[in-house]
Specification:
Shape: globular
Order of helices and strands: HHHHH
Oligomer: single chain
């Protein structure tokens, strides 16, 4: 009997360009779960080089990874710094409600 081997899935491996990243973050933001949003930013950070990003935002790599793991609870300040360092702009829009 042959044993199947599977590699570990990592979303960061599929975030190849700006359009991929934007579509991924937009989908996650629609869900609205703060832990999922933090984890998605972590995926983008890993796709873009977590170590360099941590240095740019003034955090340790371990600290940033923990904050953006989905189990962390990053401050709005951290989210804003990470977004800016990634070249992203966060904005607020009115919620659309179906009649």
């Amino acid at each position: 009997m042959t044993t199947e081997r599977f590699s570990r899935y990592d979303t960061a491996d599929y975030l190849k360009n700006e359009d991929d990243i934007a579509a991924y973050l937009e989908a996650v933001m629609e869900d609205g779960d703060p832990a999922l949003i933090a984890a998605a930013l972590g995926d983008v950070a890993r796709a873009r080089n977590m170590t360099a990003l941590a240095q740019e935002v003034g955090m340790s790599r371990v600290g940033l990874n923990k904050a953006l793991s989905g189990q962390g609870n990053p401050t709005l300040s951290t989210i804003m710094k990470v977004s800016k360092a990634l070249g992203l702009k966060l904005s607020i829009q009115t919620a659309t409600h179906a009649p």
